[in-house]
Amino acid sequence: MPHTHSGPLSAVTLSPLQQDALHAVEDWLRTPEHVRNPVFRLCGFAGTGKTTLLGSVARIDLARSIVFCTPTNKAARVLNRKGVPAMTLHSALYRVISPDESEIERLRDEIAEAHHTGREVMALQHRLAALRRPRFVLDYEGAAARAGLIVVDEASMIGERLFRDLSSLGVPALLVGDPAQLPPVRDKSVLLGHRPDVMLTDIHRQALDNPIIRLSLMVRQERRWPQSGWFGDTVKIVECLPTPEALLRADQVIVGRHRTRRMLNNVMRRVLDHATPYPVPGEKLICLQNHHDLGLLNGTMLTLDAVDTGMDLLPGIEPDWLSTEAFGCLGSIEGEPIKRDDETDHEEPIRLDDREFLWHHYADTREPPDNHPEGDGAVLLTFGHAITCHKAQGSEWPNVLVIDEPVGNGSDAWRWRYTAITRASEKLLLVREG
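Structure tokens predicted for UvrD-like helicase C-terminal domain-containing protein:
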């Protein structure tokens, strides 16, 4: 009997390969095999039906629950929209430890006494800021630790460091991902270099009707692909940079090089009449580091609904970094408004009054300067109108514009192009390099 399911992924009949994959997962879970080998790698290229299969995995009857996780907020929302409840992997694995209020008070008193040199006071202030920041530890009593199975989608983004924490819970893990995508930055992939337990290779006929999927297949197979003009009715390939207005019509612009990102962000901000070097309320921004206590991950898109314009260059360094005492409060995360108060129906924004923002104005290819305030809990941000492909990974947008400038050679180049192309769910404008 074909395996079907209801819900947002309803009226979908699994293909024979998908059914075989589902049975392989079920057999692994219901035999001692999942004890000997607690990790099952389910891989598949774009268009092979991985997400559809997860809908069926969610209904496997286990004695304990199944927890679905993704590396990013955006990827979790994509699964939620498709009927598979998901959370970020960090929120599933860790719990917060509140700051030590007595130690905070002691340091405040010591700073107030002012019997120290300026350097000593600064060191105490950094210690105070570090104490104020929540710390996260593995949650051995949380939902993930009590689950019968942890499913990690977009697992190609997961590196070995995070995977070690996941494995330490002792819960069987189903890793689902696309082995053709880019590996994580400065870490080893838990998918690449490992033999998959199941590999979905057949692109569904419906997916092959999608020009974006067809183009990604040609890129992955390193076949010749069209150099200009329309490819189907949803992909256009051009040889020159579109107008700034065309750039702004895209839901997201994806590039390969930081200098291109900086240039295009400046161009689009000028068209939007943003004359200041700092962001304006409602402007698209992207987070450059994990700030789990705020619900922000590296690559999270956000807006601010209030901006303090008191910007200052950090002293003694090149004008690459701008700082301010506070930008006010978050307006949205990944396009979702900050949740409202149930009683008043008014937005209750996440206050950032005691957080400092370090504004990455030019480049994010170098490490922050030694005297930057990141140790004080600063949130690192930059403009998000144009972003790099690594930052885009794990997300998708209806209408995407890609500047075709792959980073690296050989497999790195086609992986970059494949990852960038498959960020588009409906329309793609591909601008050829040069």
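The longest strand covers residues 424-432.
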